[in-house]
Amino acid sequence: MKTFQTAFLFGLFGAVAVSISFAAQWPTWVMFIAWVSYYIFGRSIKNSASAFLQIILGILMGAMIQFTGILLSSYLGAFGLPVSIFIFIGSLAYISKVEVLSSIPAWFLGLIVFFGIHPKLEPVPLLELGVPLLFGFVFAYLNDTAVHKVQSKKEVLNTQVN
Hints:
Blueprint: H1 2-24, H2 28-40, H3 45-76, H4 80-95, H5 104-117, H6 123-128, H7 130-161
Helix pairs in contact: 1-7, 2-7, 3-4, 3-5, 3-7
């Protein structure tokens, strides 16, 4: 019965999340990147906030890579973008020495979101990507909390019966 309840909650939260994503015209896969990140990076608000920050910074890094690549292309031609990528991705070796910025996978998830969406290099389209990311973390947290409540109630009932 516990598996059925867990499956029901997964399905319910997934259906609600996708429905909201479609209604708001968010890229649903971006929301699921955050949902998965909640579980990958430790299933806590603190870890999620840290991952969220680094994913957002990864998106901003993607914008800087593209902007710098365009700029360098006027001097280096086709080598402009690869040089920009080299500089920014290489900088992660140094940036990741800072404890709160040390999750290179989170940075790359941000880069995946940026290069998967190809937003305009303007503040509003870049900031708008934070909305489905934030909701992905929220839905994952709510889903995880609901599942743990159901599972802990079952465990309490089982110990009271025995």
